[in-house]
Amino acid sequence: MGIIRTTLTAGLWGVTGGVASLGAGMAYLAAGTTLVPMSKSDPWFKTKTYTKYNPKGNPALIDDCIKRVPLSKIRPDLRDNEEALTLEFCRGIWGRWGFWPQTKMQERYDAPPGSEHDAWKTSELAESKFEQGLRMVNHFEVVENKGDEITVRCGGSPMNPGLRNSDGLVSISARIDRQKQEAIFSLKSALFNSAGAFAPEAEHPIPPKITFLHGWGFQKGRELVEMLTGVQRCQLQELSAGASEAGQDAEIGIEYLSVGANRHTAVADWSQDGIVAFGSDCTVALWQPKDAAVNGIRTLLRGHTDVVKAVKFLPKAEGETESILITGGDDKCLKIWKLEPSGSASCVQTIQEHTASINCIATAHSRRRDTSRVFATGAADASIKIWRLEGGEATLLQTIKPTPKFFPLCIALSDLSAEGDGLVLAAAGTRNIVQVFVAASAAEPQFEVQATLAGHDEWVRSLDFAFEKASPTSDLILASASQDKYVRLWRFHRGTELPAAAAEGNDPTMGAFLPGKSPSNKAHRLKSGDMDFSITFEALLLGHDDWIYSAKWFSNENGTLQLLSTSADNTLAIWEADPSSGIWVTTVRLGEISREKGATTATGSTGGFWTGLWSPDGKSVVTLGRTGSWRRWEYNRDNDQWLPNIGVSGHTRSVTGISWSKNGEYLLSTSLDQTTRLHAKWTAGSSNGSWHEIARPQIHGYDINCIDSIGSSQFVSGADEKLMRVFNEPKAVAKLLNRLCGIEDSQIENLPDAANMPVLGLSNKAIEAVDDDQEVEAANPEADREALDPGSTVRKSVLEIDHPPFEDSLSRHTLWPEAEKLYGHGYELSCLATSHDGTIVASACKASSLNHAVIRLFETERWTEIRPPLAAHTLTATRLRFSPDDRYLLSVGRDRQWAVFQRDSEDRFKYQPLQSNPKGHTRMILDAAWAPASDSIVFATAGRDKQVKLWKRGSADETISLAASIPATHPVTALDFLPRKTEDGKFVLATGTEEGKVTIHTVDVETLNVISSIDLQHELSVAKAVLQLAWRPDAARNELAIAGEDSSLRVYSYSPSST
């Protein structure tokens, strides 16, 4: 009653009632909470948000409620993520019982027209992301969300955005004290009159009664929480990885991480420690190309909520051991990460100053350490921001708005000279110019535009600075790469005198014919303090046939300056200046040199290379292609050659389906990127083995939605088309799997040699491999629609290799020939399943009526449909699963029901309805799975209603009934049973949610009650929804494959507790 009475009494000062209610509503704030009076010098009162809503600095009633909680009591997925911890804290405040009374009072007495879009229910707030602009019960509004701190305005209706007599701010934050192993929760409140005028020494104008209720509300809130939320605290404990003693010893290990890179020029960087960081969907992947174990990607950093476009390492300071990584993307957020030498990584700061996508990041190129902490960001809000990192925190120094307006696509930052005479910033993007800004002071840089470099005909995609020589008086060289197919070099020279070539009026091109604008020898003058500099055009680099996406400098051990350029013409080139003439020439050209590049995007040939990177020692280069895969070349000094080496690859869009081969020897994955990929463990290359993409069986023209293996050398897939396609393994891939992975196939001699794709077709055709010296005639698709792409011709020796295939072979030479097409559905395929004995394929399509929501069965002997189709659903079926013994077929759908069909005892190809439940869940069912074979029927279903339900029919039961339920915090999107019981006879059930959390439950075989649960750590969770889970069958180790909406494919090992 006390809290409700406080809420009522404070009708005028609703903020007080609100804060009092909040005190009771804090799920985390129990015994040990401290109410701390805040000093007026607290940094909070100097923030932009506080000064905006209390611009006159009027006196306020201020408090800070602080709670310290041991990290051991916090869910593991929150222990290393202050943003997630703050969000859950905020949900606990607003989405629990303490705020419920005020929602009801406001709804009854203060819900005017215009407030109907506010959040009025605590259940809604318990799931909210509390984004800026969220309004609650016509009384509260989120005015700032910095990730680790959320500020809410209160005291009046959000429909009155101006200054108010009744006003206030509440700041909710959480931070992690790693030294003390504590989570520190803070709830700051400030109540004030923002509209009035008060003397600086005046007391706050809050009435004594309200002041009393304010503090009393917090105190009673703590007492009530201590009494009433013990159960809730226990529930929080149960959700953690250490939830039960039985789960504490379980171990989760990373076996394989596969992701494709986002196709943006600034998406990757190679650190001094040898780590390549690149954006993949909304995550940041860390890869060590020169890892001797060839383990590929070892870490995926979560934090961004949208596509990551810009990634940059900050140069290390003197004596610094950890690496600092800066990332930005479409979520407008700038994130600072700290990478420890041990391999651990954490986000130390999130900044949201830009108002549009962050496209590029530049760090200071310097020979001195004191300027290396300055960096710049460019965004689609047509602004460039200058930052400094001090004490582990980035602060904004300046915002630049280029004139004429353009969207920065690339920026470069450097000392003006080797001795550090100020800073220079080059910026370019959606215009054909490069703007040059100069700051006289590196300590407090304030950039001013001093030159505009013209010459390019199209947008400029890449900029990079380098000092020409090692001497202190060396000139600075800027490379600009453009969509006009050329790289231009610009010389920054110290002094009033021009460089020799420009002073003599020499033509840098030496009379060569140049398309487009003629290069100009006009000298641009710069001023940095008392120092004078000039910019002159140095050289034009011709050699690419298409857009140039990136140009990166490297100074080798001999002091020679080299430039790496990557282009949409599928090549990368290394340029050097000829020692005698000074003319820039191509010394190395890598990529697809041949004109035999193919005529279809399905071969992976078009789209080119999006970015290129030098290794720290210059002995290796990597480049990103259209398929999201990284190609790598190593320099061999003995042969003076650049040789291809193993890179990494992965899907570039949501992974929609995964399937282990029936014996568990390899894993198939399919995606909205229109590819099917085969992954297996390379055991011949190292003692422990490492996972790689070994083949790319299907490259399609439609988004692929589902897949299942039929046997050890056959699979079926369904896409956004009305048919399914069946593929057979070719001999070339079978031999490759045998040689690299030890996977044997007794039918290998009966398999077709390889597959190729018609230039204008979607069906892979079986072909014979040709001899190495045989010439292949160019295809003419106009004369023959079935003409094969010569670029993907398979020669007999191409896959006779002792390492996983490189990207060019994957996309050309590892296709599987198509064996059959299965017709019958009227709309796009939604799901399919094959029986364990490989004799039946079941499928369903997208549907809004009973006629189309049927399940069609096909036998695999003659590939004919078994009629009539099975009818049960009225909307799209979302998952089909055969029981381990194939006696039953389970289907679930968007119509909230599940149905079980039983195999006919006389006709093994026919199934009959056994039982259905039209109200299996209260919202659509998204997945289902059978428990391992037993005397009973046992299966689980997962729904959008945040429930996992376990169903059972024992040997003595007549019907299938609900045996147990497992609640979840978010909609459950995927689940799967380990296909065998544990050593102590328990079931193991893995579940995945829309939030990306994966939980492994140990389930009692008889009661189906959960014995223990273990959540995967936050850093192991998927950044978006989990779309499918699949345990590896017949494996010595328990391995779980996870398909993510964040384009990731993961394989984790699971070792259950011995207790």
From TrEMBL:
GO cellular component annotations of the record: cytoplasm; elongator holoenzyme complex; nucleus
TM regions (residue ranges): 12-31
WD repeat coordinates: 301-340, 351-397, 453-500, 541-576, 648-678, 918-961
Any Pfam family matching the protein: WD40
This protein's pathway: tRNA modification; 5-methoxycarbonylmethyl-2-thiouridine-tRNA biosynthesis
PROSITE patterns hit by this protein: WD_REPEATS_2 (PS50082), WD_REPEATS_REGION (PS50294)
Family named by the database record: Belongs to the WD repeat ELP2 family.
Database matches in PANTHER family: ELONGATOR COMPLEX PROTEIN 2
Protein's recorded name: Elongator complex protein 2
Lineage, highest ranks first: Eukaryota, Fungi, Dikarya, Ascomycota, Pezizomycotina
